[in-house]
From TrEMBL, chain A:
Superkingdom, natural source: Bacteria
A molecular-function term among this protein's GO annotations: transmembrane transporter activity
Protein location: Cell inner membrane; Cell membrane
PROSITE patterns reported in the protein's UniProt record: ABC_TM1
Organism: Rhizobium wenxiniae
PANTHER family: L-CYSTINE TRANSPORT SYSTEM PERMEASE PROTEIN TCYL (PTHR30614:SF0), MEMBRANE COMPONENT OF AMINO ACID ABC TRANSPORTER (PTHR30614)
Gene3D superfamilies named among the record's database cross-references: MetI-like
ABC transmembrane type-1 domain location: 13-201
GO CC annotations on file: ATP-binding cassette (ABC) transporter complex
Any one biological process term the GO annotation gives: amino acid transport
UniProt-recorded name of the protein: Polar amino acid transport system permease protein
Record keywords: Amino-acid transport, Cell membrane, Membrane, Transmembrane, Transmembrane helix, Transport
Topological relation to the membrane, as annotated: Multi-pass membrane protein
Family, per entry: Belongs to the binding-protein-dependent transport system permease family. HisMQ subfamily.
TrEMBL record, chain B:
Domain of life from the UniProt record: Bacteria
GO molecular function annotations of the record: ABC-type amino acid transporter activity; ATP binding; ATP hydrolysis activity
Protein family per UniProt: Belongs to the ABC transporter superfamily.
Domain ABC transporter: 6-251
UniProt keyword list: ATP-binding, Nucleotide-binding, Transport
Entries under PANTHER family matching the protein: AMINO ACID IMPORT ATP-BINDING PROTEIN, L-CYSTINE TRANSPORT SYSTEM ATP-BINDING PROTEIN TCYN
This protein's name: Polar amino acid transport system ATP-binding protein
């Protein structure tokens, strides 16, 4: 295991990290939109949101990625692998994050919503200023957990031609015949990134708590 | 006399099969303190929640300063729901204080009080916070502005909630059992704030079990039982010679508990 090989793995780690973080962020926005749709209680919003969530939770991410990569060109949208990867991860994590947030939204005491109603807030204002911040605080640990899951699942995006940690490790292992040190290094990199996410999450959780305990 | 602050006409509220309010007719005069009393389940909180449009009346009509709240009902009983922005506009003429305070836990006292000014009235942040401080000073909590609700006692939380309701400068304040969730030694500070408000001439509708408060501050007392308004009148009339048997019985239970200061 030379420093040169380790550097190649680190470079691949950047694409793992970049794709994952972008997907988590996009997924979060979509999850909030899904939550808002479900909170309207109107079936024209609720049913599509539910369908979206059950589809992306119910189909393996690997199949989703292959579908997006092969389907989009058929309907005339040619996308590079990286876009297919980010779209696939974002939609998948959106479904899981929405499920996590659902419990949080359900736990917001109705009295807090009534207080916003009598003050003349619009539905959107109540969602943005009252419901979402409280739901987010209640579900934050689960969302950090989901971020870690997505970072690990991002190893699947190699099927759409992205070279990330796992794919790079496989390539290096087969060209150098040193699988054990290379896969061990890959594991170490994943472990360090996810430990950092967990640590940041705990720090953020504490400061959120300080603002509402 | 001018337009009443609140006029309630033939108000009916049903939840499924059960009728919670039956043909309520009541006018609440401007600048007066009106107390709704009655046993648990009598419908007094539901009536107050209808006034805040937290419950939608099944039929009948409520006007706030002459403006229809939520629904417009013409003489033939035809009913029309008003547009959402109009409902919001009429709603902000009233401020509401809840039994459970319902402060937003992720905002400081100052944030709770200034939020509606910023969001609903579009007041710039600095000015909104200045105006919020005025309200906090009024309830004696300007030195708690930076505290989160969890860092305040129940009595302090309820005073912040009163300041929050006052921030939009409502014409009418609605109180839903404002001291019922408080330890007895904390009710005094909240009732004092309410007395101050009353002496400033605020129109107040108060659902309360504090018969002493109702007797000393209330100018109109309405007694509800099983969804019907059995009696409404000045406190002297109600407390001195409660002629209605149900009212007499209700008041007796309070006298038995030593809650009297009525004599």
């Amino acid at each position: 295991m030379t420093p040169k090989l380790f550097t190649l793995l680190l470079e691949a780690a950047l694409s793992t990290l970049g794709i994952s973080l972008i997907s988590i962020a996009i997924g979060f926005v979509i999850a909030m939109l899904l939550s808002a749709a479900m909170l309207t209680g109107k079936s024209i919003y609720v049913l599509p949101a539910r369908l979206f969530i059950s589809f992306f939770r119910g189909v393996p991410l690997l199949v989703q990625l292959l579908l997006i990569y092969t389907l989009l060109p058929v309907i005339g949208i040619n996308v590079p692998g990286i876009v297919a990867a980010i779209v696939g991860l974002s939609l998948c994590t959106a479904a899981y994050q929405a499920e996590n947030l659902r419990g949080g939204f359900a736990s917001v005491p109705p009295g807090l919503i009534e207080a916003a109603d009598v003050a003349g807030f619009t539905g959107a204002q109540t969602f943005i200023r009252i419901r979402a911040p409280i739901a987010l605080r209640l579900t934050f640990p689960a969302l950090v957990n989901e971020a870690i899951m997505i970072l690990k699942s991002s190893s699947l995006v190699s099927v759409v031609g992205i070279i990330e940690i796992t794919k790079m490790a496989q390539d290096l292992a087969s060209s150098t015949y040193q699988p054990i040190p290379i896969f061990a290094s890959a594991a170490l990199i994943y472990f360090i990134i996810n430990s950092a996410i967990a640590l940041l999450g705990r720090y953020a959780e504490r400061s959120l708590k300080g603002a509402s305990a | 006399m001018s337009v009443p602050a609140i006029a309630i006409r033939k108000l009916v509220k049903r939840f499924g099969e059960s009728t919670v309010l039956q043909d309520i007719e009541l006018e609440i005069p401007e600048g007066k303190v009106s107390c709704l009393i009655g046993p648990s389940g009598s419908g007094k909180s539901t009536l107050l929640r209808c006034l805040a449009f937290l419950e939608e009346p099944t039929s009948g009509m409520i006007t706030i300063n002459g403006e229809a709240l939520g629904f417009f009902e013409d003489a033939n009983g035809r009913r029309e729901r008003l547009p959402a922005n109009q409902i919001r506009a009429v709603r902000t003429k009233t401020g509401m204080v809840f039994q459970q305070f319902n402060l937003w836990p992720h905002m400081t006292a100052l944030g709770n009080v200034s939020e509606a000014l910023k969001l609903v009235r579009k007041v710039p942040k600095a000015e909104a916070e200045e105006r919020a401080m005025v309200q906090l000073r009024k309830v004696g909590l300007e030195n708690r502005a930076g505290h989160y609700p969890s860092q305040l006692s129940g009595g302090q939380q309820q005073r912040v909630a009163i300041a929050r309701a006052l921030a939009l400068e409502p014409k009418i304040m609605l109180f839903d059992e404002p001291t019922s969730a408080l330890d007895p030694e904390l009710t005094g500070e909240v009732l004092n704030v309410m007395r101050d408000l009353a002496s400033e001439g605020m129109t107040m509708v108060v659902v309360t079990h504090e018969i002493g408060f109702a007797a000393s501050v209330g100018q109109q007392i309405s007694f509800l039982d099983h969804g019907r308004l059995l009696f409404s009148g000045p406190p002297a009339e109600i407390f001195a010679k409660p002629r209605h048997p149900r009212l007499e019985q209700f008041l007796d239970t309070y006298l038995d508990r030593g809650a009297s200061m009525l004599a």
